[in-house]
């Protein structure tokens, strides 16, 4: 385990630009290495939803050994009102490989701030919103000290509200996270995952919905879906071609033709920057 090194491209990518967030069952230490060398932009060791109560302590020990031994990851800790929350933070807060924590079932801004204070100064917290209350408080949570990004727990949100998984049914909730992230000055929100057994085609369709709703990251449950997800969440070839043509024209001294020119130029620059960051600008 100590010889495992995080995928160098992914390790160098700022978490604010992470497209794929791979959730890894922390009770299964044997799969940590595969996650570390995968193309997932960010890896999350999951101490919460995927781990039964009788395995929580062993899972925490797995995470501690991994983050002490050269691995790098985020950690989804247990919810704040559980018996495990405080000990989770105490065990991992100062580990060298910890990039930040994900707080499940976030419903109020003070939950994020208290978690950040309990951990250590400057530790980023991803607030996972999984209920009607969490979504309705999204802007307050986004503005809370310590909040790094918002994430959408689609399955638990559906359980709480009775919504179906149809994109139209979840459009309001997704748009709330996108707008709240903007209001809080945060990077784009992280969407919920595709089903673990979803095909590449289904992953692409889900990612298109995520992209349409203004979200810029997505949780992923299956390492085999990561490459498809990254491709789907990156500027497309058509977008890159459009941006390249506009930027080349601007460099050639093209004149402002109408009120849409400067916004289009700004969008082209953003596409170029993202494509360059993801290694796609010269692809």
From TrEMBL:
MF terms in GO: lyase activity
Alphabetically ordered keywords of this record: Lyase, Magnesium, Metal-binding
Cofactor: Mg(2+)
InterPro entries in the record: Aldolase/citrate-lyase_domain, Citrate_lyase_beta/mcl1/mcl2, Pyrv/PenolPyrv_kinase-like_dom, Pyrv_kinase-like_dom_sf
Source organism superkingdom: Bacteria
HpcH/HpaI aldolase/citrate lyase domain location: 19-222
UniProt-listed Pfam families: HpcH_HpaI
UniProt protein name: CoA ester lyase
Lineage, uppermost ranks: Bacteria, Bacillati, Actinomycetota, Actinomycetes, Micrococcales
């Amino acid at each position: 385990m100590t010889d495992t090194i995080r995928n160098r491209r992914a390790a160098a990518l700022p978490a604010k630009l992470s497209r794929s967030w791979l959730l890894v069952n922390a009770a299964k230490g044997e799969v940590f290495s595969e996650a570390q060398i995968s193309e997932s932009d960010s890896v999350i060791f999951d101490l919460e939803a995927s781990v039964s109560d009788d395995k929580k302590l062993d899972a925490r020990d797995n995470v501690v050994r991994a983050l002490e031994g050269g691995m790098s990851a985020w950690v989804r800790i247990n919810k704040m009102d559980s018996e495990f929350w405080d000990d989770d933070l105490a065990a991992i807060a100062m580990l060298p490989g910890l990039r930040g924590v994900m707080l499940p079932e976030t419903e109020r801004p003070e939950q994020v701030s208290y978690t950040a204070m309990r951990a250590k100064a400057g530790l980023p917290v991803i607030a996972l919103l999984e209920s009607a209350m969490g979504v309705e408080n999204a802007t307050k949570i986004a503005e809370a000290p310590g909040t790094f990004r918002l994430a959408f727990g689609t399955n638990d949100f559906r359980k709480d509200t009775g919504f179906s998984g149809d994109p139209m049914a979840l459009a309001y909730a997704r748009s709330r996270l996108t707008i709240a992230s903007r209001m809080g000055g945060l990077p784009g929100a992280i969407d919920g995952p595709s089903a673990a057994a979803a095909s590449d085609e289904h992953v692409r369709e889900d990612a298109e919905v995520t992209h349409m709703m203004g979200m810029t990251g997505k949780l992923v449950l299956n390492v085999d879906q990561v490459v498809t997800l990254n491709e789907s969440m990156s500027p497309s070839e058509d977008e890159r071609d459009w941006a390249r043509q506009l930027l080349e024209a601007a460099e050639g001294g093209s004149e402002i033709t109408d009120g849409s020119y400067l916004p289009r130029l700004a969008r082209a620059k953003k596409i170029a920057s993202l494509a360059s960051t993801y290694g796609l600008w010269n692809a």
